Amino acid sequence: MDTILVVNAGSSSVKFQVFSVEGEGNLYRRIKGQIDGIGSRPRLRANGPNGEPMADRAYPIEAVADVPAAMSVAGAWLREELNINPVAVGHRVVHGGPDYANPVLIDHGVVGRLERYISLAPLHQPHNLAPIKTILNNFPALPQVACFDTAFHRDHNALADHYAIPYQLHAEGIRRYGFHGLSYEYIAKRLPQVAPDVAGGRVIVAHLGSGASMGAIKNGKSVESTMGFTALDGLAMGTRVGQLDPGVVLYLIAEKGMSISKVQDFLYRDCGLKGLSGVSNDMRELESSEDPRAAFAIEYFVYRVGLHAGMLAAALQGLDAFVFTAGIGENSASIRARIGERLAWLGVVLDPGENAGHASRISRFDSRVPVYVIPTDEELMIAQHTLSLLVNPKTHDQKHERVS
Ligand code: AMP
């Protein structure tokens, strides 16, 4: 049985999934696993396709001290205990910089180019690249594919792509990239099945998870995103600040004496829902908390989703459908209901029963703008890209340099 391994590596965890390839290129999820607690309390956990447990093991800290070691442990488990030898590996890579508008087959040259973007995503890119390099060294013949969070947004027009800074800085790569692209691409692919009447229209997708952003999609293509140069911009997130006047950063440095790395840590880890509430970065905990600051953080989140919906509707010059996805968007009927009220002026009326039941279409029959809940599947998107590059390496293996 041919299999594809999908890897999503972060600073302290490596998530992986195994898909089997069957028939005419159909993909079936076989294993969903992760090693977390890397460098602290490493643990391998994995489940089968119906959630049945396949592994749950702790390791001594020295055995899984970093991401490459975690990749080796997961790889050995798959090969030696399950006899799984993937025909290719697909990786989630946060940043494809200005160059990559499509997934790409990886070689040493590609790794070199992707290393140039470490400064654009210092908290993610090095960890995404670590398992790629480990596999490239240990299994040089195994095809690997990089799938980028930025790629789906690379066709934004120049107005959406620029900051009002001198052109030279834009040329250097200071642009509004947008992220969560694999999620938006998956939703854009699902829409014709879920909502054929509006799939070719103007759609706002709200990817509301611990990382959160919203995207404007027109006729299946991304035209605008709430995220920009980094995944810090836009909505307030679990711990990330979201939209912030750059003057605040200057103030933190000049008046509060914060170093650059302190400011970075602060903006990525101490703000957002966690900073606002002082209670938690987790929406479930905020929803069950009695603390008024938790209630305020939720209200703020809902308010900002509404504000950004207005911005994206302006980018789209109208609105034909609205989609909720990711952890909060897929699971919290109460947050969806509150956002729905904020979108009433755009023509949204939710059906309380359908919303509470997490139906696929949660708007009332007479809502001018239909609203959907579509569970995202970034890993399946990566597996599909990996398979299609494996079958037809030429179609996707192209650099895409924008001139704007
Ligand atoms: P993600 O990053 O997509 O896994 O989403 C994680 C976020 O979704 C966290 O803030 C969770 O608290 C939130 N979440 C997951 N399930 C629920 C739920 N049933 N109600 C509210 N929030 C949820």
Fill in the keyword field for this structure.
single chain, 404 residues, alpha/beta, five-stranded mixed beta sheet, disordered C terminus, binds adenosine monophosphate
Give an account of the 3D structure.
The chain is of the alpha/beta class. The chain is built from 16 helices and 13 strands. Strand 3 and strand 4 form a beta hairpin. The structure holds adenosine monophosphate. Adenosine monophosphate (AMP) binds next to helix 10 and helix 12.
What is the 3D form? globular
> Helical amount among residues, as a percent range?
25-40%
Q: Total helix count? A: 16
Unreliable spans: 395-404
Unique bound compounds: adenosine monophosphate
First-last Cα distance: 46 Å
What would you call the structural class? alpha/beta
Q: How many extended strands?
A: 13
Radius of gyration: 21 Å
Summarize the structure.
Helix 2 (108-115) packs antiparallel against helix 3. This protein has helices spanning 67-82, 108-115, 125-138, 158-161, 167-172, 181-194, 246-254, 260-269, 272-277, 283-288, 292-316, 326-331, 333-342, 352-356, 378-391, 393-396; strands spanning 2-9, 14-22, 26-36, 43-47, 53-58, 88-93, 104-105, 144-148, 202-208, 212-218, 221-225, 321-325, 371-373. With 404 residues, the protein is an alpha/beta fold.
List the helices and strands and how they pair.
Blueprint: E1 2-9, E2 14-22, E3 26-36, E4 43-47, E5 53-58, H1 67-82, E6 88-93, E7 104-105, H2 108-115, H3 125-138, E8 144-148, H4 158-161, H5 167-172, H6 181-194, E9 202-208, E10 212-218, E11 221-225, H7 246-254, H8 260-269, H9 272-277, H10 283-288, H11 292-316, E12 321-325, H12 326-331, H13 333-342, H14 352-356, E13 371-373, H15 378-391, H16 393-396
Parallel strand pairs: 1-6, 6-8, 9-12, 12-13
Antiparallel strand pairs: 1-2, 2-3, 3-4, 4-5, 7-8, 9-10, 10-11
This protein binds adenosine monophosphate.
